[in-house]
């Protein structure tokens, strides 16, 4: 399998980058992952990198982007934080990935049964978790059903799933609203910003409509 380099990256469109991730996840689900000499890729990327995408995902151990998208060394940038939330440092990292390093695609990747989302749904307060989980409250507010307060908690799997999906969409919106640099790159067709959701029970990634 070829190692990503500047020439391959430069020739790739944002749509082709998205297809590359979709196809990689399908291989993962089908147990048909590509054979790679990872140490050879380490050697080939020792002088520099040219990832074609940046994935903002959760720290969950089950949701490693390189694995679930079947990518190798040097293929994607990975930003990981509980609840795939957006903050200033994350925005700066994504801006670097796209404007400086040339990535063509930004994916915000949420997942089912997310512990951070569940904690936010239960109003968990614990050290630095408290302000972090507060960033997910907007997604809870964007999830009107069920209206019964007794059902709006982590015990309700359907509610947690709906909040998790809205949380991904909230993060995509925040990226566009908080980073004029990334919004401009997207408007010019130089990058795509997409929302995605991973099902921990099947390994399948679903891309969610997150149009402006």
Describe this structure in words.
This protein has 212 residues and is α/β, with parallel strands linked by helices. Helices cover 44% and strands 13% of the residues. The protein has helices at residues 6-11, 14-29, 38-44, 65-68, 88-100, 115-121, 129-134, 137-141, 157-178, 180-187, and strands at residues 53-57, 76-80, 105-111, 192-198, 205-208. The longest helix has 22 residues, at 157-178. The termini are far apart.
Write the layout of secondary structure elements.
Elements: H1 6-11, H2 14-29, H3 38-44, E1 53-57, H4 65-68, E2 76-80, H5 88-100, E3 105-111, H6 115-121, H7 129-134, H8 137-141, H9 157-178, H10 180-187, E4 192-198, E5 205-208
Parallel strand pairs: 1-2, 1-3, 3-4
Antiparallel strand pairs: 4-5
What portion of residues belong to β-strands? 5-15%
The pLDDT mean sits at: 96
Detail the poorly predicted runs: none
Task: Spell out the helices and strands N to C.
Answer: HHHEHEHEHHHHHEE
Task: For the structure shown, list the relevant keywords.
212 residues; alpha/beta; 5-stranded mixed sheet
Quick overview of this protein structure:
By secondary structure, this protein is an alpha/beta fold. About 45% of the residues lie in helices and about 15% in strands.
């Amino acid at each position: 399998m070829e190692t990503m380099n500047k020439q391959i990256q430069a020739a790739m469109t944002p749509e082709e980058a998205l297809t590359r991730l979709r196809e990689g996840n399908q291989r993962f689900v089908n147990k048909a992952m590509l054979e790679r000499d990872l140490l050879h890729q380490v050697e080939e990327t020792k002088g520099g990198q040219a990832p074609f995408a940046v994935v903002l995902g959760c720290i969950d151990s089950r949701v490693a982007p390189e694995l679930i998208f079947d990518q190798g060394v040097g293929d994607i940038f990975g930003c990981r934080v509980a609840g795939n939330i957006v903050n200033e440092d994350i925005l700066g990292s994504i801006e670097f990935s796209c404007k400086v390093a040339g990535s063509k695609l930004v994916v915000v990747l949420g997942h089912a049964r997310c512990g951070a989302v569940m904690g936010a749904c239960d109003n968990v307060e614990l050290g630095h978790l408290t302000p972090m989980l507060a960033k997910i409250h907007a997604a809870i507010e964007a999830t009107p059903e069920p209206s019964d307060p007794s059902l709006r908690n982590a015990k309700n799997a359907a509610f947690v799933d709906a909040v998790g999906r809205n949380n991904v969409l909230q993060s995509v919106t925040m990226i566009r609203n908080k980073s004029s640099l990334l919004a401009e790159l997207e408007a010019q067709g130089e990058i795509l910003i997409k929302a995605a959701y991973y099902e921990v029970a099947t390994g399948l990634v679903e891309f969610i409509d997150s149009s402006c």
